[in-house]
Amino acid sequence: MKRRDFIVKGSLASSAALYATSVLGYATQSANDTINIGVIGTGDRGGGLIPFINKIPNMRVVACCDIIPFRLESGLSRVNGKAKGYSDYRKLLEDKNVDAVLVATPFSTHSKIVVDALKAGKHVYGEKTMAKGYDGIKQLVDAAEASDKIFQAGHQYHSSRLYTHIVDEINKGKIGKITAFECQWNRNGNWRRPVPDPKWERMINWRMYKEYSGGLLAELCSHQLDFANWVLGAMPEKVMGVGGIDYWKDGRETYDNIHLIYSYPKGVKASFTCLTSNAMGDYKVKVLGDKGAYILDYVKAWYYPEGSYQKEIGEVDGVSGATLNWDEGKGMPVNFDHEDPSKQALIDFRDNLMNNTQPISNAKTGAMAALCVQMGLDAMYENTIVETKSKNVKDILG
Description:
Layout: H1 15-18, E1 35-40, H2 44-55, E2 59-65, H3 69-77, E3 84-86, H4 89-93, E4 100-103, H5 110-119, E5 123-127, H6 133-146, E6 151-154, H7 161-171, E7 178-185, H8 201-204, H9 215-232, E8 238-244, E9 257-263, E10 269-275, E11 283-289, E12 292-296, E13 301-305, H10 307-313, E14 332-333, H11 341-355, H12 363-382, E15 386-387, H13 391-397
Parallel strand pairs: 1-2, 1-4, 2-3, 4-5, 5-6, 7-10
Antiparallel strand pairs: 7-11, 8-9, 8-15, 9-10, 11-12, 12-13, 13-14
Helix pairs in contact: 5-6, 6-12, 6-13, 9-12
Protein name: Gfo/Idh/MocA family protein
Pfam family, one: GFO_IDH_MocA_C
């Protein structure tokens, strides 16, 4: 990448402004403008993103880092061309050939590594959830504000052009006044990764241990929390919830099922459920309004009109009751061509660096989702109602 200055002018904007729709397109740059990426953490997520980077013009992986040798070897094997391997991320950050890093390490390490990377002069794509704990969130936000480098939070659905289209339609009043969100992400399995040697248990299955992880809420529901914040342009006012280790009696510390309700301004309630004992419905987001609803999965969406409004649009060519394109229980499919959300998020990262633009999924929006996660964890673990007006939250949001 050419050694030019990338300066992000001004501090992070207000929450509502940060959720404005992006119009970023494909940058038209020369081969000399290739962005050299270092991947820190080459496990399931980091290693899984390398093939996407291989296919994106003007991006290439030149370095990988992981503390588990076979994970590092696996990551390097996925790279097109040659890449250096590191077991210490600090050594990778010293590599002058690396322009930007993708941080896909355990949740508890995000803040420290991202802050170090920004201070080392690297642009950063930081996987969700952005940071663990109130201190970690604040440290990362402060570092991003103080840096002239670009930070993008890895909530890939925020880059999905389908999700962006749905948000635009909601903002135009397509489903009327929003009253509720119903979100779920159910699986039938123990959520464990295979461990070739017991000594790697806590490193590989870090999601099962409170020291490193926020469990199902941080690893899965955080995407849907980010979406609810995006649609409403707001943080919830309070959260309550329960969870437990009720099915998998295998020594895990994080819950195997969670059920939370977040209360947003204007009376909007958002429920989030995640199971590991039953996969019915898999991943689903419902946005419910008084004129209709949108239902979204990973890459598809449906529009479900409500009541008399449903009857009105059902009169096709003047013939009442004419057949519409309709999926039972979901409504009318939303036909919208778009890239895989993870690939699109990386394309957006490239474009943000090329064009010196602020990501729509950035330190402030990432902090909002991370705060929702921490509030939910506090609510479940402490069996209490957690409010946004608490000092911990206000200190970060300002």
